[in-house]
Design goal:
Layout: H1 2-5, H2 15-40, H3 48-51, H4 57-70, H5 74-96, H6 101-122, H7 129-136, H8 147-171, H9 177-190, H10 200-203, H11 207-227, H12 230-246, H13 257-283, H14 290-318, H15 323-332, H16 335-350, H17 363-387, H18 392-402
Helix pairs in contact: 2-5, 2-15, 2-16, 2-17, 4-13, 5-6, 5-12, 5-14, 6-7, 6-18, 7-12, 8-12, 8-14, 9-11, 13-14, 15-17, 16-17
Length: about 425
């Protein structure tokens, strides 16, 4: 998510241009916390029999469907696009200053990989930063391609998961089987079973027990990346984002208004019906097969995510002074800090070493809590950025990238 995580390297000077990128970051952060908190709350791990015993369980079934319809996949798509935009901004800004853009970029990626590895192994198994950093290191390979070839490569990468799933289904191949076997080995070693899996973190009385779960959880995460062919998807989105950044499309919204309307219309027209099918397929464990599910994902998630982005951009063009953009932009300015912060808050709320609310709250309430966490972060971000130039992790990331000290607290006249 590095792409989106800072605006300190942005070449954009006008407030409108800065606001659109920051507002999209903040918007994506809201979607990310709503998508992630069902797992933090342990609801995702619970059996259907156990979730049926929770208050408002009947309503939760509709909430689950709506989450797959409106949230799942769309917001990490936005983050991935913003990552590619950030790469183009780094290249341009460092080149303008006469520096070595590749050296700066790779240092940023290595620092991000380190942060992601710490997050994955010691805080939450659902980390995306490490994957972003590792795949981000491949982006320079594409920087000299023409726009047409760039977009063609991106489209191929986004469609490859459909082909892989078809081949795996036809040959009955399980690519993640070795990882699953290793994960089960660690579960056996620590005493994590099917019966206590959903309650392990809620019942954990020490961080040692949490860490044991995180070890096998990191392997589950790798399994998810393999089964979901996530690396092809993310890299394809990075490349599209790089194209957007290279063309400065984010800075030419008024000029591109007609194009944005076409993207919005096509995204809604194609994305909505396929997303209906995607949500149904996910909730019902892929009744039409894995390859068909992957194809539905391709025609549902991506178009709707682009509709979200273009819709936000069109709204900004029509109402540039709308206060909501600035409200979303504030937490977006310190997205790395807020992303990691969401994980810490999730632990404190739901795990046994915190308040221990996990596996006892219905999905609807979890979504409300997630939205409340985002609102709290927006308030804290506003106060913090009143006194400081960067979020705390953005500040550390910047210093490690450039190897020098930057002032955190704003100067007061």
């Amino acid at each position: 998510m590095e792409h989106t995580l800072t605006n300190d390297l942005s070449p954009v000077k006008s407030s409108e241009r800065v606001v659109i990128l920051d507002a999209l970051r903040g918007f994506a952060l809201l979607g990310i916390v709503i998508a992630n908190f069902p797992e933090f709350s342990l609801y995702t791990f619970m059996s259907a029999e156990d979730t049926a015993l929770l208050p408002f369980s009947a309503a939760d079934r509709y909430v689950r469907y709506l989450l797959y319809f409106f949230i799942d996949g769309k917001f990490y798509t936005i983050f991935s696009l913003l990552f590619g935009i950030g790469f183009s901004i780094i290249l341009e800004n460092v080149a303008k200053r006469g520096g070595n853009a590749m050296r700066v970029f790779y240092r940023r990626m290595f620092v991000l990989a380190f942060i992601g590895a710490l997050h994955l192994m010691f805080i939450w198994s659902g980390d995306i930063l490490l994957l972003y950093a590792l795949l981000g290191m491949l982006l320079p390979l594409f920087r000299k391609l023409s726009d047409r070839i760039l977009l063609t490569v991106a489209a191929v990468l986004l469609f490859i998961p459909v082909v892989i799933d078809f081949l795996c289904e036809a040959t009955r191949t399980d690519l993640s089987a070795p990882v699953v076997q290793m994960q089960r080995m660690y579960c056996t070693r620590f005493g994590i079973t099917d019966d206590n899996f959903a309650y392990w973190l809620r019942d954990a009385s020490s961080y040692r027990e949490v860490f044991q779960f995180l070890i096998q959880g990191a392997l589950v995460r790798i399994q998810e990346f393999i089964d979901g062919n996530r690396y092809f998807k993310v890299l394809g989105l990075f490349i599209i984002g790089f194209y957007i950044g290279r063309q400065h499309l984010y800075a030419r919204l008024e000029e591109k208004r007609i194009g944005l309307k076409k993207i919005f219309g096509a995204g809604i027209l194609i994305g909505l019906p396929f997303t209906v099918l995607y949500a149904y397929s996910t909730v019902n464990s892929h009744p039409w097969g894995l390859a068909m599910h992957s194809l539905i994902y391709f025609f549902g998630v991506y178009p709707l995510a682009f509709a979200y982005i273009s819709g936000v951009c069109l709204l900004l063009v029509k109402h540039p002074g709308l206060a909501v953009f600035h409200q979303f932009a504030v937490p977006g300015r310190m997205a790395l800090t807020n992303y990691i912060g969401q994980s810490v808050i999730g632990i404190l709320l739901f795990y046994g070493i915190g308040l221990g609310f996990g596996a006892g709250i219905g999905l609807g309430l979890v979504v409300l809590i997630a939205a409340g966490v985002w609102m709290l972060q927006a308030i804290i971000s506003r106060v913090w950025l009143h006194y400081c130039q960067f979020g705390i992790l953005e500040w550390m990331w910047r210093m490690l990238t450039y190897g020098k000290t930057f002032r955190l607290v704003k100067k007061r006249s």
